[in-house]
Write a structure and sequence with these properties.
The protein is mainly α. α4 runs parallel beside α6.
Length: about 750
């Protein structure tokens, strides 16, 4: 345990995101201006109250599209007013108080079904309800402060802050090219003949950014905002980035499959080319954000020309050996892909340059289908209303924890006892791993914050100075919220204790001790509820997510069957939709893996196979993308029977592995798939030898040559698919054996 504990608590020493200076500044404006107005009118406490409610409602503004932000802020404003009104009638009756806390906090937790905006509206609802029940607010004066504070919050968030409806989509596209740049740099610095594990993180991030950008496109169409040439250009850039990624994956696979001495010069040139392309991708990201740049494509073009010269050299020096023939084919595939990449790069740069003058854009932008059809607003509420939903269980835990915390505070007459339930709504999360992290961060920040403030309150006594310090503290806290939660809690604790010092409360001298005691009790309740009540083990949640991801990959692969067996055109639209579903499932699986790795109660023996499973399922999806991309460029030569057999056995293997995850059993050996691969390799080698005979007789364009051009890389990819499936089969077996 001594070795495990530091690793389990390592999150306390690392930041979780960036410092949000804009959020801190907006918080300061939200509270300082109403307080200043209150001072001028001789009512500083009322001004501070209006500023406090303005900032509380602004908590729900988590960013995104303009119309979604407006709906979220209005919902938070209404939730705060409703909660305070209900608390006014229930605060003097213990039964009504417990009932309102239970129902109110269940609703606050259940609103998480609407994502982060819903979770923050729920936080405002729970916060307001607990304040009202504690008697910290009073009657019509408080409702008036909420009305003024809410109006000020809407004005600040939607009008004073820039009105840029296309900005979220613009930032999303920029993040795609930033991720693409990181991926290319990582690839350039790795051994191109290997599939290094460090490639997984940048590829996963790139995949997630592509999904998020497409989601934003769908939402902008629904909301009616951002209908402009700028938006159309951004959609074109999303499609361009997809095509660029396909080309890069093909390049990586070509060099990975053909580990031959003759390709060393090509590998060196490719590394330089990838570095150059990484710089271009970084410039494209800056251009998307509005910077005026003129990227130099010349160096990349010169490197592409050098690689094309390698093809001519390889053709002149090649002999009639199979090794030389494979090198010649590899270089040909490489230059063919680079030619398409060059054309795509030129188009992408031309589109990015138009961002400075979007009115010059006259082309038709692609209109990708939304990830899912628009649904009724109440559908997430009804779809998750059962114990099978983690979000429903989260609402139940929060409601029961709130009732328990309120009863404890009342039964033991704890000063400021509502802080117990406040701690609960900030700490308790739908999964145990995040709850554990929040709990530790909360305790650490509270203890250090209380110690620092106890010293400061002995030094500063002027109420105006204290109020300014409190406003600065909460502004700093929200700026640091995503950077490090412990630091944010440090300043939140300072704000809470300063406010209690300013307010004429009879128990103000007990606020410091009460803060620590309530935090300990609330954190303890959160831990017990998250760990022991209706908890779904993280290994089972991961297995469910992995099974869903495998099913999505199988559906993707099954779409190739008609084209292979009957030489029909590839169903590109259906393949793109299946690939999107596969990416979504892989992203959900990665989130489940993160929860498993961060769960302090998880069996360490299950983590290694879980990481392998989470890495190799997306690799299968990328392998299928390579197949589709290469088959798109083929001339339509009939697929050999062994390839069709291999495709069928692969689908069956994926189904078997998914069933093993679902039934918690060891998967069967891959005997049939191995036989199908052997038949495919035997057939392919026969065709290669036949082609060498044709070359010796100066026969250029034959059926064998067309077959090899179309399927040489496909067969090599099939070998990789088999190896990945073998690794997955072994990892799933270890996962259940170690977790049993």
């Amino acid at each position: 345990m001594g070795l495990v504990l530091p690793r389990r608590l390592a999150f306390l020493a690392r930041p979780g995101g960036a410092v949000d200076l804009g959020r801190g500044l907006r918080t300061f404006l939200a509270m300082a201006l109403p307080y200043g107005a209150g001072l001028a009118w001789g009512a500083p406490s009322w001004g501070l109250s209006a500023g406090f409610f303005a900032q509380m409602i602004l908590l729900a503004d988590v960013g995104g599209l303009y119309w979604i932000r407006g709906i979220t802020l209005l919902s938070a404003w209404g939730a705060a007013a409703l909660a305070l009104g209900a608390a006014y009638f229930a605060q003097d009756h213990l039964g009504l108080m417990l009932g309102s806390v239970g129902l109110g906090l269940f609703g606050a937790g259940y609103l998480t079904v609407f994502g982060e905006p819903g979770a923050m509206v729920g936080l405002v609802l729970g916060f307001s309800l607990l304040l009202g029940l504690a008697g910290e607010t009073g009657g019509l004066q408080t409702l008036f402060a909420v009305a003024i504070g809410g109006a000020w919050a809407l004005l600040l968030a939607l009008l004073i802050w820039p009105f840029l409806p296309n900005q979220p989509l613009r930032q999303g596209v920029a993040q795609i090219f930033q991720s693409l740049s990181r991926y290319l740099r990582t690839l350039a610095q790795s051994d191109l003949n290997q599939e290094p594990p460090q490639m997984e993180a940048p590829l996963a991030q790139l995949r997630q950014n592509l999904l998020e950008a497409r989601r934003l496109v769908a939402l902008t169409r629904r909301g009616g905002w951002g209908q402009s040439q700028l938006r159309e250009l951004l959609i074109v850039l999303i499609e361009d980035s997809e095509r660029l990624l396909k080309s890069f994956l093909l390049l990586q696979e070509i060099l990975h499959f053909h580990d031959l001495p003759q390709l060393r010069t090509a590998e060196i040139l490719m590394s330089d080319l990838l570095e150059s392309l990484a710089e271009l991708a970084a410039d494209l990201a800056q251009m998307t954000l509005g910077k005026t740049l003129n990227p130099d494509l010349g160096r990349a073009l010169r490197l592409i020309q050098a690689l094309e010269q390698q093809e001519d050299l390889q053709r002149r020096v090649s002999t009639d050996t199979l090794e030389d023939y494979n090198s010649r084919v590899a270089i040909g595939q490489l230059t063919q892909t680079l030619t398409a990449l060059q054309s795509q790069l030129e188009e992408t740069l031309a589109t990015a340059r138009l961002l400075a003058k979007p009115h010059h854009f006259t082309g038709a932008a692609p209109t990708p289908a939304p990830l899912e059809p628009a649904s009724a607003w109440q559908e997430p509420l009804s779809a998750n209303f059962s114990l099978a939903s983690p979000l429903f269980r989260h609402g139940l835990r929060l409601g029961l924890g709130g009732v328990a915390g309120t009863w404890i505070a009342h039964a033991f007459a704890i000063p400021f006892g509502y802080w117990i339930s406040l701690t609960l709504i900030f700490v308790l999360k739908p999964d145990f791993s995040l709850t554990f992290q929040r709990l530790c961060n909360r305790l650490l920040g509270t203890l250090f914050g209380a110690a620092a403030v106890s010293w400061a309150l002995k030094t500063v006594t002027d109420p105006v100075i204290l109020t300014v310090l409190g406003i600065v503290s909460i502004s700093v806290a929200l700026a640091l919220l995503r950077f490090h939660y412990s630091l944010a809690v440090f300043f939140i604790t300072a704000f809470a204790l300063i406010v209690q010092e300013i307010a004429p409360h009879p128990l103000a001298d007990q606020a410091l001790g009460a803060r620590i005691l309530c935090t300990l009790i609330g954190a303890g309740l959160a831990f017990l509820l998250s760990f022991g009540f209706l908890r779904h083990p993280e290994d089972l949640r991961f297995a469910e997510a992995a099974q869903t991801a495998l099913t999505a990959v199988r559906d993707y692969f099954q779409l190739l069957a008609p084209s292979l067996s009957a030489q029909k055109p590839l169903p590109l639209e259906a393949l793109e939709q299946a690939r999107t579903r596969s990416r979504l499932a892989s992203t959900a699986m990665q989130a489940a893996l993160d929860r498993l790795l961060n769960d302090p109660s998880a069996d360490p023996e299950t983590q290694e196979p879980a990481v392998t499973i989470a890495n190799y399922i997306p690799r299968l999806g990328r392998g299928l993308t390579v197949l589709v991309s290469h088959l798109e460029q083929s001339s339509g030569a009939p697929a050999p029977a062994p390839l069709i057999q291999f495709q069928s056995q692969t689908c069956q293997t994926l189904a078997n592995l998914g069933a093993a995850l679902e039934t918690q059993t060891a998967p069967a050996p891959l005997t049939d798939l191995e036989t199908a691969l052997e038949n495919l390799q035997t057939y392919h080698q026969t065709q290669q030898r036949r082609r060498l005979e044709e070359l010796s007789q100066k026969q250029e364009r034959t059926a064998t040559q067309i077959y090899l051009k179309n399927y040489n890389l496909v067969i090599a990819e099939c070998q990789q698919i088999y190896q990945r499936l073998s690794t997955l089969q072994a990892a799933i077996r270890r996962f259940w054996q170690n977790g049993a």
